[in-house]
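Chapter summary example.
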Amino acid sequence: MKYGIDIGHNCPPSDIGYVGIRKEDELNKEVGVKVIAKLKELNHEVVYCTPSADSSLSNSLYRRVNKANEENVDLYVSIHFNGGRGDGTEVFAISESSKKAAKRVVDEIAQLGYVNRGVKDGSFLYLLKNTKMPAILVEGGFLNSKDDMERFNAENIANAIVNGITTF
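The structure predicted for these 168 residues follows.
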């Protein structure tokens, strides 16, 4: 299978993500690099969809989607952590096939002890609206949640994401 992996934000200077107890772009990268390596170990093709730099958030989003669409990936996965108040993990999706993958991923992450906030409607998200393939946006936990940040382990979350997307 061919996966488009987007390590959320990580596109300075305009797209660096939320800062809470930890920095979102750092956690996204810790998890995303491991997801990519694990998928390659399983002999899947991986397309890296995160631009290295960009002048605006809108251009960063456009380039991520464009890369996935040009490469005709089978599943697009954008890796993030939530800002604001709350606890737990949730995954955004739009299509039925995306929702199946999202359900697998959110259930896998919840098995690590995170509150399962379920699959959410992602129809307002540019990344999910504009990709031509099934696409999910993973929120691995809340950056302002002491419990979520104490529980955070990049290896475990990467394993959960890979288990979820390779078995949907």
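To summarize the output: The mean pLDDT is 95.
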